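Re: [ENG-882] Designed sequences occasionally contain unexpected residues at chain ends

Forwarding the minimal case from QA. Structure tokens:
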């Protein structure tokens, strides 16, 4: 017996994925201790189940995006929205941060203000971050991905 992959072109399957993703994003932010004004009910941009970009309202100004979260078949992460207005920019920013992080850890000087996987991340985690960062860069650079957005 083989399990069928969900059909994400089906609006009901797509909606269920987004609802589950929303819950995961909210739980992730809580686990990170990020104080915010709430996670948007729907991602700004997504390709289910691969990746989604979620706006998170600013606590100081709930009408504004204060943070962006990426979620999907990638490590979940967030960045300040201070200089990032579009999901494409979010992918680039997180990819750049992951690359810098991997380079710093490999160089023996992990950043003090940013951690992934604890004090001594496993080599497999670093390799995965490096790989996923490359995929984010490619996705951000691919104009076809952003057609109609």
């Amino acid at each position: 017996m083989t399990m069928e992959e969900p059909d994400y072109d089906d609006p009901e399957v797509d909606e269920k994925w987004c609802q589950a993703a929303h819950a995961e994003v909210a739980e992730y932010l809580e686990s990170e201790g990020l104080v915010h004004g709430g996670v948007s009910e729907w991602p700004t941009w997504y390709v289910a189940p691969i990746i989604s970009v979620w706006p998170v309202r600013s606590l100081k100004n709930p009408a504004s995006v204060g943070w962006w979260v990426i979620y999907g078949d990638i490590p979940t992460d967030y960045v300040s929205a201070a200089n990032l207005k579009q999901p494409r920019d979010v992918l680039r920013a997180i990819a750049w941060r992951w690359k810098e992080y991997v380079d710093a850890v490999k160089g023996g000087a992990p950043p003090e203000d940013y951690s992934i996987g604890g004090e001594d991340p496993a080599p497999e985690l670093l390799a995965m971050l490096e790989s996923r960062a490359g995929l984010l860069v490619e996705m951000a650079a691919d104009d076809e991905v952003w057609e109609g957005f």
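QA comment: On inspection the terminal residues look reasonable. The chain has one domain: 11-143. Proposing we downgrade this to a documentation issue.
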